[in-house]
Amino acid sequence: MEEGLRNGVVLAKLVRAFQGERVVKRIYDAPKLDFRHSDNINYFFNFVRGVGLPECFIFELTDLYEKKNLPKAIYCIHALSHLLARRGLAERIGNLLGRLQFSDDQLQKTQKGLNDAGVAMPNFGNVGRELAREINEEPEVEVETEEDRRDRLLLENEASILAVQCFARGFLVRKAQATQRVRIRLAERYVPKIQTHCRGVLARRKINQQRQEKSDLKPWYVVKVQAQIRGLLLRRRYAQLKAAMRSSSVSVVKLQSLARARISRKTHQQVAKTFAKPEIVFSVVALQASARGYLKRAALAKQSGLLQRSVPSISGLQAHCRGVLMRRRMRTQFAKLEDVSYIVIRMQAAVRTYLARKRLLSLIRGLRKATPMLVGLQARARASLARQQHRNVNKKLSEVKVVAAVGGFQALARAAVTRNRHREQHKRLEFVEPDVLGLQAQARGYLVRTEYFAWRDHLWNSQPVATMLQALLRGVLQRRSFRAKMKYYRDNLHKVVKIQSLFRAKETREQYRQLTLGTNVTVGTIKNFVHLLDDSETDFREEIKVERLRKKVVENIRENQALENDVSDLDVKIALVVQNVKSFEELIKARRRYGADSAAAHATRASILAAHGDPFAGPNTLDHAAKRKLELYQQLFYLLQTRGEYLSRLFTRMSKEDTSEKNRRLSERVVLTLFGYGQDRREDYLFLKLFQVSSLTRLSIHEEIFSASSIEEVVRGHPTYVNLAVHYVRPKQVAYVRETLQSIIRELTEAVDLDLEADPSIIHRARIDVEEMRSGIATAKVKDVPFYEALNEPDTRAEYIRHLQKLQWWTEAFVTSILQSTKRMPYGMRFMARETLLSLREKFPDAPEEAYATCIARLVYYRYLNPAIITPETFEIVPTTVDVASRKNLAQISKVLAQITTGHEFGDDHPSYVPINDYIRKSVKQMTAWMLQVADVPDAESYYHAHEFLDATVQPKPIYISPNEVYSMHAILSRYQEDLASSREDTLRVILHELDGVPNLDNDELKDARDRAVTLELTNRFAHVRDPHADEKALWVQGKRGVLAILRVQPAQDLVDSLMRPVTDDDEARWENIVEEMESEPMPRRMPSTAGGDSAYRLEDIRSLSFKEVKAHAIFFLLELEKQGKITRNDGFQGILNAIASDVRSKHRKRLQRQQEMDSMMEAMKHLSERKKNFQEQIDSYHDYVEAAMATMQRGKGKKRFVLPFTKQYFHLRDLQKSGKSPQFGSFKYSAKELYEKGILLSIDQYSPRQFDKIDLIISSNKAGIFTIELFNSSLGLTNRIASADLRMEDLLQSQFENQASLSLFNGMVKVNLSLLLYQINKKFYV
């Protein structure tokens, strides 16, 4: 903070906030601290001395600049805030005790710095009382606000509060611990069992998870994971590369587009030059046709060859595909068969068993029948075989070679016999197998039945135990199912919440849709959205903020107008000073006039007005007659505001008589002030009604169009309402044109080497100049050539074509921006376009739409858009003045746009623009449609939701106007009284008669006092308005109020159900609670509604009734409305619900409209501040001139003069040199006797002229225009300074201008002759 205050920038900005930029013109804000920053601090010194801050509070320059005593500088700022608060100019700096927290290290470091510097900390708590004692005023009684009282009590009881909080926290902690211990003690016996179960569950879950992981861990899964990881890494690397490419895509694409464009243009130019010859054109066409045919045939042949070569591959691929499909189908079937294989196997086994038994039984039966025959046959066969075998054996035995194999043969024989025996045994077993199987089955059945009967008996005997076990099992299954459901619910809890929110949102949207449509609104919808009817504290604050902004906007507009007049007057005064016509004294007087308006000047101005009985002197200085005049003026301007026919007749009469420019401008300024420059809904509506209802615009446009013989005459005309219309839309015009055209205009002005010149002669000359500049040799070509000759030049023609192409492209960009701005255009401009279109269609019903659009473009384009295109810097579209080249480019675009708005193409008078007539024709259609779209707006009543009783229901806003303007308007109205109000009973004539003439304006002093703007409240003298539908509206109000009260206490799905439900004691208690809440609600949190519709929802008027009475009243009012046919019970009194829904929509629309007004006024404040800054810079140049003049008068006077040695002046100068306090512009010492003899000194209190030889006066000057006079007494041998004072040259000149003969110094102690003192000062310091 110390470094931020040292350069004085913050202090200078503070002064600028109070005195404006006309006083603080420049603030030196260099980053490095140097001596020029002291000028910023001097601004602050001049300001604090100007507002009357005592010297004891003002710090020295070195205290702040060199940081010698920063606490005193801060103490001075605190004292200044208290002084300005006493004057009503600012708020005082509050007591910051307890609001800022500092650490002990910071406090110790700060105290150490103060001790090292030898600086004492001022007492900031007593700054108000110290200031009151110094300025001899009563100390202000500081009103302790609720927040200060709360903070003070909290700080005073901080220790107690902390102790209570500690006790409370301890009690809560102890209570929580005791509760926890009790719960643990109660569940102590269940804890080991629960822990055991939990450990078992956790262990089983862990084992199952491990088993599942092991079973799921397969090689293909690992490979798949690795593949996914590789894919993830590759995608991440690709995303990083893609992001890097995207980050630089803009520059790369732009560079590529520029390169391609340049290459394409160069190639196109070369090819165009070559192909421009006719003999080449036909050859190229034939060649292209042949080439296309060849390429097509080659492509077809290539495709056919590829297909022929790929036939085997395709056939093989098809075979593979069929095989794959077939194998896949077989695998599917095999898989299905494998799933039921065990069933098939069992079925096959059963079938085989059945077939085997059947064959066996058949075989057994056949064998039984053929047994004797078979036995005989077998016997014969065996005998035959035995004989044959015996023969073979004998034969073999007879041979010697087989003897050795007898042993082996015997073994084979034994094996054969054994096998035969085994087969015989197997056959016998197979024969008796059914009997064995039956026996086995019976044995098994017996065993199973025995075991079954044993278990059945056991279960019957153990029935209680089985029942308990079943219950336990069912409980386990149920708990498991419940846990699974709860787990599923918790896992999907966010989805459930989302579904619930979506469902609620759907219901709310459906209800809001019903509310917005206004048809068949349900009771539930009314209950959910009825809170929108309440005016909250936020609405109250926003209303206050809107009113403050509106007041500031109007004040800034008036201040800018006053500054503009001051600038013009000051220019004249400075010119006269240069010509030595005016004296320097008058310049000082003018400076005091346009400087800071201090509280003393304000009091002086009020006293002057009160002395002359002016009604604008103030509420505390008015007598009965002055108050009556003030009321009449309030009624007069209210009448002018609400009845536009008076202003219409006034402007019509003034235009016919060719009134002076001064009166015309005054009337326009008063009209704009009267309607607040359209910054409020009511005033904006009334101002537009002035443009509509038989008044200015309607009268002027209607008469202008009906007096014209053709539409062309209307287009060329100049209506009288244009000046007012331009001033009215200007604050909103700036924001609109900036938002619409800023981007395209800035792009055009920042374009490099952009030239849109469309004249070939100028292009030819510029091209030759460029060639000469590049070569350095003067060319022999002729520079100034006519249009067609320049056009025949190839290079010039190519450049001309490029210029036309660029001009067409830029014009199309402007047209696109304008066509897309319809919704952003202010309603006032569109309203005037609407009135123009209605008058044109009434006068010329058969005219084409293009003619109507041309007449509308006269207002919308020429007065609204074209100035912003030609001079964008005046609308803050560009930060600085555009260069010459950009200005020419904008002029070319403006020319093309102007031709488009005329609805005609370029003719032979502009041959250079004829080639773009195709584009002109296309744009004319677009612009015509846009102009008609601009005029397609509702009337003012629909847009502002106004009605015929708007003035009776909405409080008019005050206006800010100077008494001089009031009296000047009074004079103009009196002059044209017969034309404005012909009847003697007319309201305007009655008010003018009661005012009894215009006050005298010849007194310059009185005129200056009346030049300050005052707040003029508007009152309606004839406000006795009777609404013919008042009774019906009262029924609606009472009915809606009763319905809402019933719905709050007895809500239902249908209003009829609520009405028919009997009243119970609970309903009465609920109604009493609602009434108590209303009574306990703090008053500032609710803003009472002023509109009739809003008052229907305030329950204050019925809270004294019981709910039974409220319900009876509501039913009565609903039945009365039903008798009048407004609502019916057949639809459940739906009409009253729709009326409430309509009021909800109106309240929302009002809030949106208030926000729009706030935004527009903030934008207007911004532009007005910039405009005010420009004016103040011009006035600051005047102040610089005054400062320079004062410094010039003393420049060079500080040089040493010859002084006689050993004189009083000689010793005085020597003492000053020794002490190092020599003033910059000199110091002169005189005895009181010497000045008395010269007639300069007249008297000194408590001293006689005989003692004047012992008294000395020293006059010195260390700063231009400021003189220090010191009084010393050396009668007792010691020199003591009695008094000291600083005199400013401008104060002395002002006193001389006021014809004062003498001047009192040192609080009246010394009296001097003013003229002789000025002569002496001029002689010593300026001559």
Automatic annotation (TrEMBL):
Q: Where in the numbering of this chain does the Calponin-homology (CH) domain appear? A: 1-84
What PANTHER family has UniProt attached to this entry?
Answer: CALPONIN-HOMOLOGY (CH) DOMAIN-CONTAINING PROTEIN (PTHR14149:SF14), RAS GTPASE-ACTIVATING PROTEIN WITH IQ MOTIF (PTHR14149)
Q: Name one Pfam family in it.
A: CH
Q: Which GO terms describe its molecular function?
A: actin filament binding; calmodulin binding; GTPase activator activity
> In this protein, which residues make up the domain named Ras-GAP?
701-902
Give the protein name, as stated in the record: Ras GTPase-activating protein
Listed under GO biological process in this entry are: mitotic actomyosin contractile ring assembly actin filament organization
A cellular component term (GO) from this record?
Answer: mitotic actomyosin contractile ring
Q: Which domain of life is it from?
A: Eukaryota
